[in-house]
Amino acid sequence: MLEALITSKTRIKLLLKFFLNSSNTAYLRGLEPEFGESTNAIRQELNRFEKADLLTSNMEGNKKLYRANTQHPLFPEIHKLLLKHIGIDKVIDKVIVKLGQLSEVYLVGELAKGKNSKVIDLWFVGEDLDKSYLMNLAEKAEGLIDRKIRFLILDNNELQEFLTNKSKSELLLVWKKE
Question: How many CB atoms sit inside 10 A of residue 81's CB?
Fold first, then answer.
């Protein structure tokens, strides 16, 4: 879907890196091996995003560190578009209705770090969640979005234990009970 609108693969990678999880930061030379592209191509796109005020930067030593400008008026819309692109919105909508006492859903793994992946890793947090129902829906959603879905069901105590060992850039809250 996104490839039809945005023809630059580098631009799509940067959008995923910075706008899927706004706590991600990166510098030019660090993106080169991650993206497998030349620094010149990456630099051009970073400059475009920075000029459009979609990215902010600051110097850390001799490195220019980039991050998403969460204050930009388009940030929430770009974030939602990327969630739709990777299919998380469909997974969450299908699961929440009948799952049980769900309190939060986190995206973890490569996608949470802003790296494109064919695997969606999700943590479902709640009490008395219907695991067989979740497995059934995850299988159906995989067919819709052409990605593999792995999930873990946690209670609040287990979540707190995991959160003490994870970096903020390694997980992304994608749904919370209001």
Answer: 16
Cα 128 to Cα 110: distance, rounded to the nearest angstrom: 28
Domains and CATH numbers, the chain: 2-68 (1.10.10.10), 87-176 (3.30.460.10)
Beta-bridged to residue 138, according to DSSP, are none
Q: What is the pTM of this model?
A: 0.58
Compute, in degrees rounded to 10, the torsion defined by CA atoms 17, 21, 125, 77: -110
* Close Cβ partners of 8 (under 8 Å, ≥ 6 residues apart): 45
Angle, helix 39-51 to helix 9-19, in steps of 10 degrees: 60
Would you state the structure tokens that stand for residue 86, as one six-digit string? 């990777």
The number of CA neighbours under 13 Å toward the Cβ of 96 is 15
What the block records as the tokens of 165 is 């060992």
Interval 28-69: pLDDT, tens: 999 998 888 889 999 999 999 999 999 999 999 999 999 999
